[in-house]
Amino acid sequence: MPMSDSFSKRLSPILPDIVDTFGTPFHIYDETGICDTCDTLNTVFAPIGGFKEYFAVKALPNPHIMKILFEKGFGFDCSSVPELALSRKIGAKGDDIMFTSNNTSAAQFTEAMDHGGCILNLDDISLISKLPAVPDVICFRYNPGPRRSGNHIIGNPVEAKYGVSHDQIKKAYEAAIHMGVKRFGIHTMLASNERNFAYMVETADMLLDIVTELFQHLDIRFEFINIGGGLGIPYSPNDQLFDLAAMARGIMQSLEKFRKKNGFVPRLYMESGRYITGPHGVLITSVINHKHIYRDYVGVDASMAALMRPGMYGAYHHIHIHGKEHLPPSKTVDVVGALCENNDKFAIQRQLPETREGDILVIHDTGAHGHSMGFNYNGHLRPKELMLQKDGSVVLIRRAETMADYFATLDFVPQVMPANAS
Ligand SMILES: *Cc1c(COP(=O)(O)O)cnc(C)c1O
Q: From ligand 1's centre to the CA of 143, what distance in Å?
């Protein structure tokens, strides 16, 4: 079931007032739901001592939300300098932050190691020699290549640009030991929106096998394994929920087996984004036009600048019309934004009840990879973000972009390189 019933019950009665107060379009996030998911994750994995979730910042890079997650004991997974700065601004430092970058520049490493540092998650063996200093702890991102088939969304690991290959992984840790690094972890990220818990257990098993091997050959006692993110959520009403408890049980058994064999056990880290915030956000947009040509179109005041996933991946986002939740569908329509791109559609050939201008559409599950993925193509400005707080109040946590923002990068003293400069 997309968008929880409890979020729906909290939001629905006050939605018209929120729309009157703030105007559409906007994303709104549910503090209660986010906190509940954090608590569930922490509870389910509590028997695994030292479990830590590093929230993938790119999913919802809003400091108001990140603060809630930080208070729940989460760290942050960053892949750029602005994401590092955002995490540090709310107080995260050192082992609270994982820097999982790809094709990283020397300047990025310097930033990552400054300001209280972080856990470096290196994406390639060649990067060791490019670090500006010896870090306390190093983690490598492992790419199993043909040893593992990726899940259906992320694709085949052989074709993925990420990580250290199987035959390089031992050499990579040897080089790190040689450099003087004392603490180690290992990471992988193979799934995206995977709703089969067994896949994540297999991923933990895969990393534990390598950790065993490297313990035997290099005598490294790994501090942690990081099995990445990619836990799936049900976007469509037909989708099953991810069985988090079964995943925790499976990994616990694997860790116990590992402990018996090796006499120590690494901590379990995870870096989910979607699973934490995805179902706890919706995009609210008003119907502004109807058009009937070869197909019937419902035009809304949001565009793919607010939500790229349908246009970019053909992703399904459930939609309901506020106040018409219980009406049977009576029309097959495309729900569209205003961009001059024919993939600016929130839904294609979707069955919905009849809409009228002014109707409020609720587009589900936009709490992760929603606002953050938006762009300014075609002069479209990204909408505001709101949060429905636990006490029922609603707070603006990011204003909408303005024309001034759009023009900000044109506001500078021109730099000119004269002709024939020598
Ligand atoms: C995007 C990403 C994540 C989060 O993915 P979700 O599908 O939101 O869980 C985690 N780790 C890395 C390295 C990523 O690139």
A: 15
